[in-house]
Specification:
The complex is a heterodimer.
Chain A: E1 4-7, E2 10-13, E3 19-25, E4 31-37, E5 43-49, E6 56-57, E7 65-67, E8 73-78, E9 87-94, E10 103-104, E11 108-112
Parallel strand pairs in A: 2-11
Antiparallel strand pairs in A: 1-3, 3-8, 4-5, 4-9, 5-6, 7-8, 9-10, 9-11
Chain B: E1 3-5, E2 10-14, E3 19-21, E4 24-26, E5 32-38, E6 44-50, E7 56-58, E8 64-68, E9 73-78, E10 87-94, E11 103-105, E12 109-114
Parallel strand pairs in B: 2-12
Antiparallel strand pairs in B: 1-4, 3-9, 5-6, 5-10, 7-8, 8-9, 10-11, 10-12
Classes of the chains: A mainly beta, B mainly beta.
């Protein structure tokens, strides 16, 4: 019973490097989200998707790109990592039928040196 | 746009004591309201939610929350705290016009439980 799976769970990057975080959900959910969590700031929405092939910007989209080519996957990319992107990243999904309840992955801790 | 404030960054209670975590929101109408809990190294788990109807909602693990429109609040309560309740708690609000498709989270309240 996997739910929402994020890979990798930990990553260390140097400034300027690129990387992709993968989120996979096996619940056939329509909506998927990427949040970042920083101390004292709660969770802030980076990008989200309301269906396959669609994406939209959240509160803090700058420096990130996303793609939703398959319904079950939502990728978060950093083209040129910066120290300000050091954070814990959470993916979440929800059914289009179920108002508001999000199911979260366990998080991916990214450090940019 | 909606917003959420959790005034208490950190709360410490003794095991067996009662608990109340505060949440205030800003939104033009009645929003969707949620409380999530995060254990160390884990993702967030839904405790309870309010959409409409009875303003006192029951959740998992013995938690409840009360929606008070006049105070724009949705405080979380538990009559007797257990050591396993130590975690971080997040209040969240969603807009009705988008069916809650985008949630805004508060800053979180870290709960410590003393034996």
């Amino acid at each position: 019973n996997a739910g929402v799976t994020q890979t990798p769970k930990f990553r260390v990057l140097k400034t300027g490097q690129s990387m992709t975080l993968l989120c996979a959900q096996d619940m056939n959910h329509e909506y998927m989200y990427w949040y970042r969590q920083d101390p004292g700031m709660g969770l802030r929405l980076i990008h989200y998707s309301v269906g396959e092939g669609t994406t939209a910007k959240g509160e803090v989209p700058d420096g990130y790109n996303v793609s939703r080519l398959k319904k079950q996957n939502f990728l978060l990319g950093l083209e040129s990592a910066a120290p300000s992107q050091t954070s814990v990243y959470f993916c979440a999904s929800r059914s289009g039928q179920n108002t508001g309840e999000l199911f979260f992955g366990e998080g991916s801790r990214l450090t940019v040196l | 746009a909606q917003s959420v404030t959790q005034p208490d960054i950190h709360i410490t209670v003794s095991e067996g004591a009662s608990l109340e975590l505060r949440c205030n929101y800003s939104y033009g109408a009645t929003p969707y309201l949620f409380w999530y809990v995060q254990s160390p190294g884990q993702g967030l788990q839904l405790l309870l939610k309010y959409f409409s109807g009875d303003t006192l909602v029951q959740g998992i693990k013995g938690f409840e929350a009360e929606f008070k429109r006049s105070q724009s609040s949705f405080n979380l309560r538990k009559p007797s705290v257990h050591w396993s309740d130590a975690a971080e708690y997040f209040c969240a609000v969603g807009a009705r016009e988008t069916s809650g498709s985008r949630l805004t989270f508060g800053e979180g309240t870290q709960l410590t439980v003393n034996p």
